[in-house]
Amino acid sequence: MSGAKILNVTGLNNSEAKWVALDKIEYQDPSGKKRVWEMCHRTSRKGDCDAVVIFTILSATKDKPKETLLVSQFRPPVGKLTFEFPAGLIDENETAEQAAVRELKEETGYHGVVREVTPIIFSDPGLTNANMKLVVMDVDRSLEINQNVVAVPDEGEFIDVFHIPVDKLYSFLIEKANTTHAVDARLLHFAFGLNVASKI
């Protein structure tokens, strides 16, 4: 997907921001000294958890290996296409499991079954209290619902879906990071862990 680019960057004050706000935190460190920290927070939080990130495992078939799904989209803060796990915000009165099933269907067209959900984890705790749960989902490619899938992303989302063999995930991301794409750190850390674990 091409054609996306940054046109201008200007500062915002909190009254202009729709999704995030800046805060100044005054706190006391372990030695008793008073300090100040700057952070941003989501203004869209509906409960104790903001979002889900989805690690999908597509079942192997006779002609396809076990794969995972990645999405690629233009991310304005980094000014380029990025590779990420499918993900999305949790709606009001929605569980993480329900959000993961919905978001996977919207972004990739696939119907998945939740295998495991982590506790709440934090994306960048030095900058923000934004948080998420990692949801592991199984996708059975033999099911009728997973044949000829069509994604239905939200308005304004321009997402390409990639099927990547799980055992090639790390090398794929390194190649893309060195050539065409930004790579979400959480995704690369996950892939690096898989790669290390396969060699132990």
TrEMBL record:
Please indicate if the UniProt record lists Electron transport as a keyword. Answer: no
Per the record, the domain of life is: Eukaryota
The segment(s) forming the Nudix hydrolase domain are 45-187
Q: Output the Gene Ontology terms for molecular function.
A: ADP-ribose diphosphatase activity
Matching entries from Pfam families are given as: NUDIX
Spell out the InterPro entries in the cross-references: Nudix_hydrolase (IPR020476), NUDIX_hydrolase-like_dom_sf (IPR015797), NUDIX_hydrolase_CS (IPR020084), NUDIX_hydrolase_dom (IPR000086)
Hydrolase listed as a keyword = yes
One annotated GO biological process: ribose phosphate metabolic process
Q: Choose one Gene Ontology CC annotation of this protein and give it.
A: nucleus
Cited Gene3D superfamilies: Nucleoside Triphosphate Pyrophosphohydrolase (3.90.79.10)
| Keywords annotated in UniProt | Hydrolase
Q: Which family does it belong to?
A: Belongs to the Nudix hydrolase family.
- Name under which the protein is recorded: Nudix hydrolase domain-containing protein
